[in-house]
Design goal:
The complex is a heterotrimer of chains A (316), B (430) and C (333). Chain B is built from 19 helices and 13 strands. Chain B is α/β, with parallel strands linked by helices and 430 residues long. In chain B, the strands form three sheets. In chain B, strands 1, 2, 3, 6, 12 and 13 form a six-stranded mixed beta sheet that branches. Chain B has a five-stranded mixed beta sheet with strand order 9-8-10-7-11. A two-stranded antiparallel ribbon of chain B has the order 4-5. The longest helix of chain B is centred in the N-terminal third of the chain and has 24 residues. Chain B starts with a helix and ends with a helix. The relative contact order of chain B is 0.16. In chain C, helix 5 runs antiparallel to helix 12 and helix 10 runs antiparallel to helix 11. The longest helix of chain C is centred in the N-terminal third of the chain and has 33 residues. The chains are: A mainly alpha (316), B alpha/beta (430), C mainly alpha (333). Chains in contact: A-B, A-C, B-C.
Chain lengths: 316, 430, 333
């Protein structure tokens, strides 16, 4: 406004103050920003660079390949299995866990005694490490493990027999059931987390809405489907986005239960495990970096699709 | 509050500075990794004329090993005790690499911080040789006049590449036929007899199937060889899985399952074929020396014995599984490491290592521990069961996936298996 | 991006908060039409039980809800209870369906302490050091960064903050190879450098900065301005006035980061090579894999118990912050 006005003492001191504040601001953000710029942004560009090379773990770049790594990845049958597995896991696990999480959130959201306890209980498995949980589940689900024993003792075996599972089904060891076991495992671990997300979302819905619905004669079931569920749209979007990103990154459980090959029979080979395998078993660093780029693009696309699907929602 | 925060700030600044400083100071060892390689090849002045006398070498050596059982740890200790008595000038520190040995070692190689001497499984020997992780041993062998002729070629060949030797087998196994002596009185000597015997065994006792077979090349390759088939041409430069003999052998293997003579472990509901024969689910399984320990421990009541693999139309055949000792290209104590290596793979060290029965000797001049005669007999004519070509893992995977699909879909046709395997071989050889 | 409410304002699931009680809506006030809907509800969902309008239906529904909640809670606890039980069993007993160890033995614990290499004590120390360092680093860097982004005006602030948020979009796996290559050249893949590598890569997360920035934004400016008028410098204002006010947010960051690092698997499995440097989760993975065909379960279960206890204790005492941290950050540990 007051362009090129002669600096009065007040203005000068104000400007000095601003400069001081700016300097303080830079000083405050310096260390975190250097870390972000080097370890996040820098390495991201570096990943794109490495992905164009034949890269030796000890000697670095050996031969410039252009996009050859990407061509090889897309035509590799194991990668196709890996991406299929990752997508299958995500498509089943996310809705399943969302449904359980929402269900738990709705129950726990009631005014009933002990709900703090139940809320804490449902979140409980999420506090343990993925390694602990996976090792524990391998123990529970082995042929003569607790799960098979208990269902036998409860007389549930005919039911499982009807589904084609013998009394000593090796859940992680049989390629038909390995991935589904991981899905159940992670639904068990994460349902409490999704419940918390949904609780936050549920509590942003005003009571007035329900009053209005009740006056219109809607029962709890109708109220839920016609009022709560649509109003939770930002919550759905948020949980689904977080879920899909997490699902496509499935790794810990696959490596711990299936080793670097995603055994049995590639059934636990996920995209990230494939990447890990390419880097530290096949020693193909450039190729592994390229897998990372592909994964990034897949996640990015999935997020965009979801955004489109859920419309222009403002999150809770 | 303020003081604590300051301390914390300082701490983080320090961490950061340490990292920045690390840049300069630790740049040296990393570039040193490359720089130490050329001198390594020439290995000092000793290699010109003077004969190499192991007992004059001194130094500290780190030895990297996996340990699949406590008994294995004790056997290694026995061998190392023997070494310490004979070569008191060299101190060996054993480092047991836990977890995925291959991944752990590869990251070791990558960082340049690696044991001097270590196990190399045949499975990944070609990759490690090609990547330059391993020190060639030929100079040492020549200098010392170390006799390598006693090693069975089916073991030793795996660790040679381009005329150089990168490892010497520490022990080895061949695949043999384990059979239940209650159900099988005379073990079949040919594949034709095997089929007949299997038909006769159907429905006997509590058998779920007469034979247990793995749906992969880890056993199938032995049958492929027995029937005159092969994965590669004789010079190893092209695929031979599409030849008539190979295809017929694959079909024969599939037919065992098709005709109810054999089942895979997953069909049987067992973890592996050893468990299947131990439990009495099958009467015949094809395994290596490890079957003995497993059955003795877990199924002491099962009566069984080893026999040689039944001969096929091309005669006797079996395959080997082995591991070697090798020396790191980055090692700074190569001479001392070699002294350890020549002892552990020599007759004395190998006897100490194998006499407890946890491993089978890879040399013909070491006494065979009790119960492993058949395994050693097979080593006379066995061919490598892994590590004989690059990316063999991918080839195995292709074969197994296609084979399993044929079994699962009950189509039992060798065509798809051969096609998939050929594609993988072509890719691996490219 | 999602703008979570400032943690101080509202506790998700806070018992005192105004819950949207679904049952209350349908029950007593329901018009005749509701009855039909309720029947369907009872059949399909099994939660909101059907029945004549009135208190009885509410009681019944409540019973069903309790049954479901107790059932699910049991499902959450039983595996852990089984872990504890198994850790006091002998190896053969471990695979039997007996709820009281027979014989009851601390042999597995002894084995885990004395025979496992590295033993429990060392693993525990490693995990604690790593988690402690990462937590402190996130608190320090997150609060100074969060404060600057919330309160200090400087050119480029928006773009820098955008960069911070954008890193949330980058999957860790994309960084695996370049981070490893970078640290390898820096010599941070050998010896104690491996620790520094893990600490560096986890030193500051966008979540920490974001959470603290949001919190600082919610604090009224008056106090700060008063301090400034008294002549306090920027840093004094931050550390003496603002930081103490941000305790709840700092607590949430502490819990999130400590739990996240204590349980971390991905970066440790990539960067911690030497067994002497393993953390508890790594040890669990590698011990099991090493066990080969017959795993020795009781000592492994002991390690699981020990790996979970510290977080469990935190959870029991600071449950509120877990809930807040998770719900408001939207990023699980």
């Amino acid at each position: 406004m007051a362009a090129a006005a002669p600096a009065t003492p007040v203005q000068a001191s104000k400007r000095a103050g601003e400069r001081q504040e700016a300097l303080a601001g830079y000083a405050f953000v310096a260390i975190p920003m250097v870390l972000f710029l080097v370890l996040n942004l820098g390495t991201t560009f570096y990943a794109f660079f490495i992905s164009l090379w034949d890269w030796n773990i000890r000697k670095g770049p050996e031969e410039f390949l252009g996009l050859q790594n990407f061509v090889d990845i897309l035509s590799d049958t194991t990668f196709q299995v890996a991406i299929k597995n990752s997508l299958y896991y995500t498509v089943i696990w996310v809705p399943l866990t969302m449904a359980i999480g929402l269900f738990l959130a709705v129950i726990v959201n009631q005014k009933i005694r002990g709900r703090t306890f139940f809320r804490a209980a449902f979140y409980f498995p999420a506090i343990a490490s993925s390694a602990a949980i996976t090792v524990l589940w391998i123990f529970l689900l082995q042929p003569d493990g607790l799960f098979n024993e208990v269902r036998g003792a409860l007389g549930l075996n005919p039911l499982f027999q009807a589904m084609g599972f013998g009394p000593n089904q090796n859940w992680f060891g049989d390629y038909h059931t390995a991935m589904n076991s991981v899905i159940v495992l992670n639904a068990w671990t994460t349902s409490g987390t999704f419940m918390l997300f949904y609780l936050a979302s549920l509590q942003s819905i005003s009571n007035d809405v329900y009053e209005a619905a009740a006056i219109d004669g809607a029962g709890p079931w109708d109220a839920f489907w016609k009022v709560t569920f649509p109003l939770l749209k930002p919550g759905h979007f948020f949980v689904a986005t977080v879920g899909v990103i997490g699902g496509l990154q499935l790794f810990d459980q696959a490596l711990i239960a299936g080793g670097t090959n995603g055994d049995p029979n590639n059934s636990l080979m996920t995209v990230v495990l494939y990447l890990y395998n390419a880097a530290f078993v096949q020693l193909n660093f450039g190729y592994a970096a390229a897998v990372g780029v592909v994964l990034f693009l897949v996640i990015f696309t999935a997020t965009l699709i979801q955004r489109r699907l859920f419309g222009n929602t403002q999150a809770a | 509050m303020r003081n604590r925060l300051f301390t914390a700030l300082f701490a983080s600044a320090f961490v950061f500075a340490a990292c920045a400083g690390g840049n300069g100071s630790s740049g040296a060892p990393t570039t040193g990794t490359g720089a130490t390689m050329p001198p390594a090849g020439t290995t000092g002045p000793a290699d010109t004329t003077a004969a190499f006398d192991p007992s004059t070498i001194t130094g500290d050596v780190r030895l990297g090993a996996w340990e699949s059982s406590p008994a294995e740890g004790l056997a290694l200790k026995a061998a190392l005790d023997g070494f310490a008595a004979k070569y008191p000038n060299i101190k060996v520190t054993q480092e047991t690499v836990a977890g995925d040995y291959r991944v752990q070692m590869v990251t070791n190689f990558g960082s340049g911080d690696v044991p001097d001497i270590f196990y190399i499984n045949a499975e990944y020997a070609p990759e490690w040789m090609a990547e330059g992780f391993l020190e060639p041993l030929d100079d040492y062998i020549a200098k010392q006049g170390f006799d390598t002729s006693a090693f069975f070629p089916g073991y030793a060949d795996v660790f040679k590449s381009d005329g150089k030797t990168y490892g010497l087998p520490k022990d080895g196994n061949t695949i043999a036929m384990g059979y239940n002596t209650d159900l099988v009185t005379t073990p079949p000597a040919t594949l034709a007899e095997l089929v007949t015997a299997a038909d006769g065994l159907k429905g006997k006792g509590d058998l779920k199937a007469p034979i247990c077979v793995n749906p992969g090349l880890d056993r199938g390759l032995a049958f492929l060889y027995a029937e005159g088939g092969s994965l590669l041409t004789a010079d190893g430069t092209a695929s031979a899985i599409e030849t008539d003999a190979s295809k017929a052998a694959v079909q024969w293997y599939l037919d065992l399952i098709k005709n109810g003579q054999a089942m895979t472990p997953s069909q049987l509901g067992d973890g592996w074929c050893g468990e299947a024969i131990g439990k009495g689910d099958v009467a015949i399984a094809f395994e290596g020396g490890w079957l003995k320990g497993a059955l003795t421990n877990d199924f002491p009541d099962t009566k069984w014995a080893f026999a040689e693999m039944p001969a096929g139309s091309a005669g006797k055949a079996t395959i080997t599984f082995t591991a070697a000792y090798g020396i790191a290209a980055d090692s700074e104590n190569k001479d001392a490491a070699w002294v350890v290596l020549q002892y552990l793979t020599g007759p004395e060290g190998m006897q100490k290592w194998t006499e407890g029965g946890i491993a089978v000797p890879s040399r013909s001049d070491v006494p065979v521990p009790e119960g492993f005669d058949v395994i050693v007999k097979g080593a006379d004519y066995a061919k490598p069961g892994s590590g004989f070509m690059p990316s063999y893992n991918d080839v195995q995977k292709a074969f197994q996936d296609a084979f399993t699909a044929e079994v699962t879909n009950e189509t039992y046709s060798a065509d798809a298996v051969v096609t998939a395997t050929k594609a993988a071989i072509d890719k691996a050889l490219k | 991006m999602h703008n979570p409410p400032p943690p101080r304002e509202r506790t998700p699931g806070n018992p005192d908060g105004p819950p949207a009680d679904l049952l209350k809506v349908g029950g007593p006030r329901g018009a005749p039409l509701a009855a039909a809907a309720l029947v369907r509800a009872g059949e399909a969902a099994g939660v909101e039980d059907a029945g004549p309008v009135g208190d009885r239906s509410r009681g019944l529904r409540r019973k069903v809800a309790y049954a479901l909640m107790i059932g699910y809670a049991l499902l959450m606890f039983v595996p852990f209870a089984w872990t504890v039980i198994t850790s006091f069993k002998t190896r053969p007993d471990a695979l039997k369906l007996t709820f009281i160890p027979d014989p009851f033995t601390v042999g597995a614990w002894q084995y885990a302490m004395e025979t496992l290499d590295p033993g429990i004590v060392q693993l525990f120390t490693n995990s604690a050091l790593l988690a402690g360092a990462v937590t402190i680093s996130n608190l320090v860097l997150g609060s100074i960064g969060g404060y600057a982004f919330a309160r200090l005006r400087f050119p480029g602030r928006e773009i820098l903050f955008l960069i911070v948020l954008a890193t949330l979009m980058i999957p860790d796996q994309l960084r695996l190879v370049p981070v490893y290559v970078l640290f390898n050249t820096l010599g941070l893949t050998r010896g104690l450098g491996q620790y520094i590598a893990v600490i560096l890569v986890l030193a500051i997360s966008a979540t920490s900065i974001f959470l603290l920035r949001q919190y600082f934004l919610s604090i009224p400016k008056d106090l700060e301005e008063a301090a400034r008028i008294d002549g306090a410098g920027f840093f004094t204002t931050f550390s003496r006035v603002m930081l103490p006010l941000a305790t709840p947010a700092l607590a949430a960051v502490t819990i999130l980061q400590f739990q996240g690092t204590w349980n971390a698997f991905f970066w440790p499995v990539i960067l911690l090579r030497d067994r002497d440097h393993w953390t508890l989760p790594l040890a669990l993975f590698l011990f099991r894999e090493n066990g080969g065909q017959s795993t020795n379960w009781p000592p492994l279960m002991a390690v699981i118990v020990l790996a979970t206890i510290p977080i469990l204790v935190l959870y029991i005492f600071f449950q509120r912050f877990f809930v807040e941290g998770v719900a408001s950050s939207g990023v699980k540990g």
